[in-house]
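Subject: for your reference before the review

Hello V.,

The reviewers asked for a structural picture of the protein, and I figured it would be easier to keep everything in one thread rather than splitting it across files. Below is the amino acid sequence we used in the manuscript, unchanged from the supplementary table.
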Amino acid sequence: MELCEKCSVRANVKCKIVSERECVYCCGLFSKLKRIGKEISEFLKEYNVKTIEIGCKMKGSIKELEELLKVESSIKEEVKKELSRILSEFKVARLADAIVTVNAEDLSYSIRINPIYIYGRYIKRVRNIPQTRWICSACKGRGCQVCGFTGKKYDMSVEEYIGLPVLDITKGKDAILHGAGREDVDARMLGKGRPFILEVREPRIREVDLKELERAVNEFAKGRVSVKFFGFVRPKHVSELKTGNYKKVYRALVEFEREVDKKELERALEKLSYREIEQFTPERVEHRRANILRKRKTYGIKLLLHRGKRAVIVIEADSGLYIKELVSGDKGRTKPSLSEILNNPSRVVRLDVIDVMGGLKFDPYSGG
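And here is what came back from the structure prediction:
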């Protein structure tokens, strides 16, 4: 057996000592790691990376030989240790800025730049803006006459009003908005705003001033959308945000088919308050969502204004309750409904979300 000095010690065997390049075990791997480390270091510096995770893939002849020699210290751990020493300018940590993985068989490597996640709330003051990019269904984003060759159903979204200026500052590749629920395209999001996390992928600048980001977004959106950023969060917070239980408060302008007496309307709203509502997926969204039965609860519902066939009402309810269908009944798919209780077909003319109660409980940290 011909091994280099390092590998013969690691394998604890008597053998002919040769140079690392001639070693049948490491094939000069350790002498070549310095060159690889330099390439990796130069790449990471372009992305303002401070912390890294290091991994090593083991397969092929090296893995087989390692099992044959029954080495006391695996080459995988030795590679990680040596690469950590070479890349000592970067701190090795869990949940790091980047993940470096080396293949011990052919010395190839991959580098994944981890996203940064920014938690905040957004206000949407203008109707007919979707929360996220809405790809044109006719061309699947390729561009056609239907979408004016933009590839999108709507020119802009909340995601783009927030994400584009953030990408300009962080030099990231893409920005994805994760919201605590979503309002309808034609509904406004008012009050203190909706909780969201902005995921910025492959940012070249990770340490940014959140106040600067706020100013950039608010200036770019020109009042259509505004944001308040609270801090950087971890990947786990995305699922916490999406699965959290939130109460929401809505203000709806409702129109009735026939004039309704104010007292009768107040009694109907009282009957609809503090009730469990059963809803099948609304007909208007059934083409893109599974038709399942949802059970959600209403809380206080009160009348703000009444004029003949129209009324303004405020509804507090669980997250996930379809308010338009709570009013209309959606051809019997929602029970009970305001239309059913009044025996008077009714519909929501305009809808605003005026409060989203709750949000993440986290300790924001200062860096990405």
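For the response letter, the relevant points are probably these. The chain has three domains: 2-113, 116-243, 247-356. The first helix runs from residue 5 to 11.

Happy to draft the paragraph if you're swamped.

O.
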